[in-house]
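User:
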Amino acid sequence: MLASVHVLQLITVLKRNTHKMRLAEFIRSDMEPILKDWEAFAKTLLAAEDMNKTGLRDHAKDMLLEIADDLDSYQSESAQAAKSKGIAPAEAEESWAEIHGSDRQTSGFSVMETVSEFRALRASVVSLWTKANPSIAGDKLEDLTRFHEAIDQAVAESLQHYAVVKEMETRLFGAILLASPDPIYVLDLEGRFVYANKATANLFGLAHKAIIGKTTFELGFPFAADFQHNLKKVIVDQSTFRGKFVHTFASGNGEQFEYLLAPVLDENNETEATVCISRDVTEQAVAAEKIWYNAHYDLLTGLPNRRLFLDRLEQEVKHAKRSGLPLAVFFMDLDGFKEVNDALGHDAGDHLLAAVAKRLTESVREEDTVARLGGDEFTVILSGAKQHADVELVAQTIIDALATPFQIAQDNVQISVSLGIALYAQDATSPASLLQAADHAMYKAKKAGANQMCFFEKAADQKEQQS
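Assistant: Predicted structure:
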């Protein structure tokens, strides 16, 4: 019974002390319950999700202590009148509210989230203060009025500085976009241009006003269907996409382009637009194609070189294995080429090799591969010839074509060819063994005399190797 009496007396004393307490002192002494309310609110802020929770709490505490100091400070009648109208006293340094606005802007807070912080602090303090003081009058009413004015002033200063930083950021970002050599543009959810930088207008060869509000379809771009499909995917998946397109715009610039699509998310984490950055990679693509061409084609004749020939032979062998269709490989060596090269010079020899390549290409189908392995050695991959006679007919056509004299400079040049033939899968089943079999058949043809062809004969080849 006595214990209960003591508890009641303690509560009475606490209430009496609270009634005597001014708001500034209340804020400092009841900081913990105020911050607990604040923490519950902070969880609802999207921009605060990835922020350090201790940092958020300390920031709120600093804000409250600044307000408490403001309540304790002397305020003249003129200052009070000015503050009630939202006019802050001129300060040489940034106020804590201005620093807060700058910090929140750079941290990704929206204007509403920045204002909501102050609203939450106001609600927490007022709720706890009015519970402790059911009847507010006199000094307490004056404190509460000054508290509201301090909050309102802080909001105004914070937003003003937020806006200043935001405007500066916008100007800097605009300058970057304007100076960027890469076309950068923003499209709405329907794929319409809502922004295009100068590089975009220059590339399209269109006035800025002719671009805004249009889709790639309406601008007549042939890549529009693929672009729009990828755009929808970025909007729905909220993921980036890297793509390519080939087109020469009205400006005459470019041919091959790479582009990056990225979603722009609103405060609710929903896609509200898509930004696209494109880049003219024509020069790089041409350079890469040239490097690839030089690595896979003979620069003198324009025919596939040994590397590309072996790659194609491997593909043809795989196709023949799947389809069951026959495949023939010719291996050719020019007879008399060395004599021409020695007598007329290397330039004449080069012209002769280029002319031979042309006649070989004209003697076979477009889908057949003619290649120069090096020196005066050439090969042909003949696919789909079902009859032995068909293969022999093509080989004879080549022999006859090369037997016709070549006009090199002022001279008529006569050469011949030795041609060996190997068949898949009769003679060999791998690319390397097929080429080797054709090579052996070619040496047999060369021994037989000028303008001869020989099919590979496994038994004869084995007998020759044994002797």
